[in-house]
Design a protein that fits this description.
- The protein is built from 6 helices and 11 strands.
- It is α+β, with helices and mostly antiparallel strands.
- The chain has 3 domains: 42 residues, no CATH class; 51 residues, Ribosomal protein S3 C-terminal domain, CATH 3.30.1140; 144 residues, F-actin capping protein, beta subunit (Aspartate Aminotransferase, domain 1).
- Helix 1 runs antiparallel to helix 2 and helix 4 packs across helix 5.
């Protein structure tokens, strides 16, 4: 029999791998399975925080029209997250998954990097509006110990369609590193796609792909424009590769996993087959 620590570890693993838009449903299911659901209470704050920040959960910026992402890049204190576009820090309740307040930014932004960060932010918002449905982006800026500027772009786009039994989320992270006096920036990206389809089955697609490219520099506006041209090209190529994989799986992998429909072109009624088997055994 599993120990309490083992049960907690198993439960938290299920929670952290919850499909997009289904986290609270998984929480409810796990509590229903456990004999004593209070054993989750001690680890719940850390687990909820880990899930929310890893999923780049989008929330409405208080007093503004844009959304801000809850990420580890923007975490300035426990439950406090940067909203650089609004020049504020928001307070976020990880258990309820809601904003509870805000305060003005104090010294959380590097003013030397800020002109570049703001330029990248403007291009990020335009890029997301053009290419992502229900998308949001948050852009952070910092200065490395070697003097290089570091711009981090977090992008999240989700679509939930539970009535048709599927939910999905795209997350991409781009770290752009450069010297303002240099000629070229290095872009290191990570793209994650999670899709859950649950009609007459339970299928999940989880991808995790690292990317790397470069772009030309210039002033802050030129550097941001060139970087997002490179990002757009890379992400479009990745999406194209995913679509090609879907087609390949549909024609090969999935057909190999299941028996083709019978001549009647109707689904197999497993209950009738089971009943027939039982009758046959009884006659025997």
């Amino acid at each position: 029999m599993a120990t309490q620590d083992e049960l907690i570890a198993i439960a938290n693993n299920f929670l952290l791998n919850s499909p997009p838009g289904e986290f609270h449903e998984v929480v409810t299911d796990i509590r229903g399975i456990l004999a004593d659901d209070s054993i989750l209470n001690e680890t719940a704050p850390a687990t909820f925080r880990e899930y929310n920040t890893e999923q780049y959960l989008p929330v409405q910026s208080p007093g503004y029209e844009h959304q801000v992402l809850i990420t580890k890049f923007g975490e300035v204190a426990d439950g406090e997250y940067l909203d650089p576009r609004a020049q504020q820090v928001i307070f976020f309740d990880h258990i309820k998954q809601e904003v509870t307040g805000q305060r003005p930014i104090e010294n959380e932004l590097n003013q030397e990097v800020e002109p570049y960060r703001a330029a990248f932010e403007e291009h990020a918002f335009n890029y997301v509006a053009e290419h992502y449905q229900n998308g949001a982006a948050t852009v952070y800026g910092s200065k490395a110990s070697n003097g290089q500027y570091v711009i981090t772009v977090a992008i999240s786009s989700s679509k939930y369609n539970p009535n048709n039994f599927w939910n999905g989320r795209w997350r991409s992270t781009w770290t752009i590193t450069f010297s303002p006096s240099g000629q070229q920036a290095t872009l290191v990206g990570n793209i994650k796609v999670n899709v859950h389809y649950c009609e007459d089955g339970n299928l999940q697609l989880n991808t995790n792909s690292d990317q790397k490219t470069t772009s030309s520099l210039g002033d802050s506006e030129t550097a941001a424009a060139n970087a997002f041209k490179a990002i757009a090209k890379t992400e479009q190529n990745y999406q194209g590769a995913l679509e090609q994989s879907y087609n390949t799986m549909g024609e090969t992998t999935f057909k190999a996993l299941r028996r083709a429909l019978p001549i009647t072109r109707t689904k197999i009624d497993w209950s009738r087959i089971q009943n027939a088997k039982v009758i046959k055994e009884m006659k025997g």
